[in-house]
Amino acid sequence: MKNVKYGKMMAKRILVIILTISFFTGCRHGYKVENDKVYYEYWNEGSGQGKWLLEEADASTFQKLEFDCNLCFGKDKNHLFINGKLIKGIDPNTFKFIGNYVFADKDNAYFFGSYNNLDDCVIKGVNPNKIELIKYPWAKADNILIYRRYTVYLDDIDDFIPIDEDWGKTKKYVINNNRIIYGADLKTFKILNSYKGKDKNYNYEFGLIAKDDFEKMKYKTFNFDQEDICKIGLVEFVDIYDNEEPITDDPNEKIVVSEKLKLNGFTLKEVRQREWSSGPRIISVTLSNDKCDCFVDKLYYYDYSKPSETEKTYKVTERIHCKKKEK
Questions:
Q1: Which terminus of the chain, N or C, has fewer Cβ atoms within 10 Å?
Q2: Global confidence as pTM
Q3: End residue of a domain, out of 93, 121, 146
Q4: Structural domain containing residue 15
Q5: Are residues 194 and 296 in the same domain?
Q6: Distance CA 90, CA 69 (A)
Q7: What is the per-residue pLDDT across 112-168, written as a single tens digit (0 to 9) for each?
Q8: Are residues 218 and 320 part of one domain?
Q9: Whole-angstrom Cα distance, residue 297 to residue 285?
Q10: Same-domain check for residues 169 and 89
Q11: What is the rounded distance in angstroms from the CA atom of residue 192 to the CA atom of residue 206?
Q12: 148 assigned to some structural domain
């Protein structure tokens, strides 16, 4: 009997603890309309429960928004708030939840699943009315693959299959986040971690062949006319640019190795530009002849040891690797 009574007593205590936890966690953060003003309530481990006034909020039209995600949304006739922060540039009257932390209004789509700045969560260049969820954090709109708030164009997007939260593939490409790994061998490609992979030929990091795999060579002594370019390995030319260079807005920015290949019978197929893990810009060019495809990168590196007030100029190199066409 004592054990039964003890068991009932412990069950009651556990129930009280659960209800208490539920009460306090439920009121730790959220919106509250009080005396014609809107507040955001929060919990701080040091100071306990607190609140701040949302000065821009209109109490008469304010309402909480309940979505299936771990964020606190609220809106009035003119504004949208997330976790008590006014989010600029979003239309509250057309704002809607699509799923997997993807949202949209009449103008744009947004991803709030991860962020450094809530005001910088726009999924650029997509039609918000055409978004289709795939599997978190992947989605698509027409031929644009969406990874979180980043995008990449895929000409075979209907073949896309997510592998995990960082990797995916189609019948032609391996994709890491929003980066296509051009030239990767799909049959032998293996994922090593969230940003590294390898195939029978190369190691890859952040969507590119690992920089340490490239042999450093001098462009000024390399003979493009005598060498069989299609047999060239991984080569980085370190002496094309003697001085640090600023980034320009020229859409036809010159790439020295690319121009040299054109003179040797190669045809330009594609130009891509983006940021990369070691610098602010990489321009990637694909060129072809009847024997092989060659991939040329122009890479900008920034010396972060320089004082912050120093003019933004960058070390620049170009590199190349070629892949023979399958017969």
A1: C
A2: 0.80
A3: 93
A4: 1-93
A5: no
A6: 18
A7: 998 888 889 999 999 999 999 999 999 999 999 999 999 999 999 999 999 999 999
A8: yes
A9: 6
A10: no
A11: 12
A12: no
